[in-house]
Amino acid sequence: MKVRQDAWSHEDDLLLAETVLRYIREGGTQLSAFEEVGDKLNRTSAACGFRWNAEVRQNYDQAVAIAKKQRKERKRALEKSQTSLATNSMEKSVKTDNGKVTSEQFNTDANPTLVEEYSTELVSMPAGSSKQITLEDCISFLRDFKKNNQQSNYAKLENERLKRVNSELLAKNKELEKRLEKLTVQQQVIQDDYQALVQIMDRARKMVLFDENDPQRKSGYHLDKDDNMEQLAK
Hints:
The structure is a single chain. This protein is mainly alpha-helical and 234 residues long. Among the domains are: 1-59; 185-223, no CATH class. 65% of the residues lie in helices and 4% in strands. It is built from six helices and four strands. It has helices at residues 10-25, 30-41, 45-56, 61-82, 112-123, 135-213; strands at residues 96-97, 100-101, 221-223, 229-231. Strands 1-2 form a two-stranded antiparallel ribbon. The chain has a two-stranded antiparallel sheet with strand order 3-4. Strand 3 (221-223) and strand 4 (229-231) form a beta hairpin. The termini are far apart. Residues 89-110 and 118-130 have low confidence and may be disordered.
């Protein structure tokens, strides 16, 4: 049973963010992302979901928007590749009757399942239909598929580029957080030193005023018009 009560570290939050963003880009659910992170960190998926919604998500609003855009582009590219066909190479064995195709064979280096699906759609006709597919129809059909297959490859390359950019931004954000933490510590030290100096000056001012008001305890210092301590001439 997964039971952890310790606080989340920066590395835990980073792993949670990267996993959720990856699932968003790839069209998965956030629940699946929480389960994966929970397995890695020995936490429950509910704890991961609460951490994401309560603390981590607000730091990655822009990254979430980019991931959703990538998911939409990925989905659009897949739908386009499933509704058109193209190929880089083709072998045909065609028997013609008055210029009409009666049989054909295709070879392609594209997705075999996709090609089979669209080839079936292309050559299949309703029972009793007299309509035949011409050779020009086949050539036009395959040219369109090749064009859309190239667009799909471009979308994949763009997706990879955006992933690299996202990783670089996450690394830069982590570095800036470390610098901010260091500057915060330095600022606190300076503030403490300043407060200590103010307290010393206050005590010195009070001592000088007390000595000036008491003739029996005249000191060798007094305050000038700018409230600066000045040693009296002996």
